[in-house]
Amino acid sequence: MRKILMLLIMTLTVFTITIQPDSASAAKKNNNPTQLVKVGKSLVGTPYRFGGTTKKGFDCSGFIGYVFKSNGKTSPRTAADMWKAGKKVNKPAIGDLVFFQTYKKGPSHVGIYIGNNKFVHASSSKGVTVTSMSNSYFKKRYLGAKQL
Q: Of 61, 95, 129, 146, which has the fewest beta carbons less than 10 angstroms from its beta carbon?
């Protein structure tokens, strides 16, 4: 009985040690906006697909969800729900979400701010791409930035 108890304690100890680095990694990813940008930019060229949430094709909110999930975070499914859930910021910082009013009233498009006045997003015309916040189409449709 004593051997079984010792074996059980050793097994639990090894199991705990084994999972702690992964948990620490996930925690580090959760708070690393640079990692969000890195993953987002790595997907440039992925085609647009309405309702898409995979590397086969993304819509704007599916793209955000994929990037967040790959960094151990979760996000609401739609741009409008992300807008509702986010915390407003006055000026976007790297990793913040930027929202636009495109085809309907209210937030209908979302991207990730990557710095230097640019954002990465899933464009319906270009797929995943990097665009300037000064772009004539997006500049006049900008609603604001939020943190999730």
A: 129
* DSSP assignments along 106-132, one per residue: S--EEEEEEETTEEEEEETTTEEEEEE
The parent domain of residue 2 ranges over: 1-30
Whether this model's pTM surpasses 0.90: no
- Catalytic status, residue 60: yes
Phi, psi of 95 (to 5 degrees): 95, -10
The verdict on 6 and 78 lying in the same domain is no
Which residue in 121, 122, 128, 138 is the catalytic one?
A: 121
Annotated catalytic residue within 109, 112, 120, 146: 109
Annotated catalytic residue, options 60, 64, 67, 112: 60
pLDDT 10s digits, 9-64: 444 443 333 333 333 333 334 568 999 999 999 999 999 999 999 999 999 999 99
Say which CATH number the domain at 66 has.
3.90.1720.10
